[in-house]
Design goal:
The protein has ten helices and 13 strands. The protein is of the alpha/beta class. The strands form three sheets. A six-stranded mixed sheet has the order 2-1-3-12-4-13, with helices on both faces. Helix 3 runs antiparallel to helix 10.
């Protein structure tokens, strides 16, 4: 049985505390949606006295926590197709990388769409959760973007570079810096690399670790920043035109970091979850992704 209104309101307040005031309009939107969804979920549970699992029938509601860009936008584009299949899709926006997993694990939300599988695996280990992937939907190339400097080829000694501080995305950032000749990592560090694995640092660059959601706000404070695709979009960066370097489609990262629909273990077999994945992988949604994001977001087969 889902836990109801009080937990989701608490989650929305946690998001506001984590992400600060710079995105107040989006945070207000997230809180409002969280309240509305929680009230509706509580009313539905009270009326039916049953879980939402089981066969998808007309009137079925599916709640999904998502980052505003591009995840919530893609989900909103899928609402009409879901409705045609008898499923009302409710999207709740969060602006951090922690609360979406917590509300799914607690049973207050059916699924989330904001992360790649390595991040989910690491989260499960650290938090003791049992979330699984129901399907990979898209890939967002990580990019190096200009801050106070714009010449990556002639990087100044002592330059500061901000990277995401979560384990999987920090490794991606460091690998991207290595590919572009900024640093060299210890042999075998690969997708588990941290700043401690830097073997050669000819420019004595300072790697500054920061929560991913905050990096776009600190662009003016560093020489360069490495941004996740969704946060680059929110900062009005285009990976094709603004990134000084980006992960290529044939890179190890591109093959590993597809963004997924995550659910509680066992819920991946729910008919409405399977329908959501099917819709998000449809030709219609693939076309929406390709035309809307112009290379910043790439659909997966």
């Amino acid at each position: 049985m889902k836990k109801g209104l009080s937990f989701v309101l608490a989650a929305a307040l946690c998001v506001a505390a984590i992400t600060g005031c710079g995105n107040s309009a989006k945070e207000t939107k997230a809180e409002t949606k969280a309240e509305t969804t929680a009230e509706t979920t509580a009313e539905t549970a009270a009326e039916t006295g049953a879980e939402t699992s089981g066969a998808a029938e007309a009137g079925t509601k599916l709640t999904v926590a998502a980052s505003p860009t591009p995840h919530a936008e893609i989900l909103n584009a899928a609402k009409e197709m879901m409705a045609e299949k008898g499923i009302e899709l409710e999207v709740i926006e969060f602006t951090d990388y922690v609360q979406p997993n917590k509300v799914v694990d607690a049973g207050d939300v059916d699924a989330n769409y904001f992360q790649h599988f390595p991040y989910l695996e690491n989260f499960n280990v650290e938090q003791g959760t049992k979330l699984v992937s129901a399907g990979s939907i898209h890939y967002e190339p990580l990019g190096i973007y200009p801050g106070k400097s714009s010449d990556l080829a002639n990087i100044a000694d002592g330059a500061e570079i901000i990277v995401p501080n979560d384990a999987t995305n920090e490794a991606r950032a460091l690998l991207l810096l290595e590919v572009n000749g900024v640093i060299t990592l210890k042999e075998g560090a690969g997708l588990n690399a941290t700043a401690n694995d830097i073997d050669e640092n000819p420019h004595n660059v300072k790697i500054v670790e920061m929560e991913a959601a905050q990096i776009a706000r600190a662009v003016a404070d560093a020489d360069f920043v490495v941004l996740n695709g969704n946060y680059a979009l929110q900062a009005n960066f285009n990976v094709e035109t603004d990134a000084l370097a980006k992960e290529e489609a044939d890179s190890e990262a591109a093959q590993t970091y597809g963004n997924i629909i995550a659910v509680r273990e066992g819920d991946e077999e729910r008919p409405e979850i399977k329908t959501l994945v099917e819709v998000l992988k449809s030709d219609e949604i693939k076309s929406y992704i390709e035309t809307t994001y112009e290379g910043a977001v790439l659909p997966l087969d």
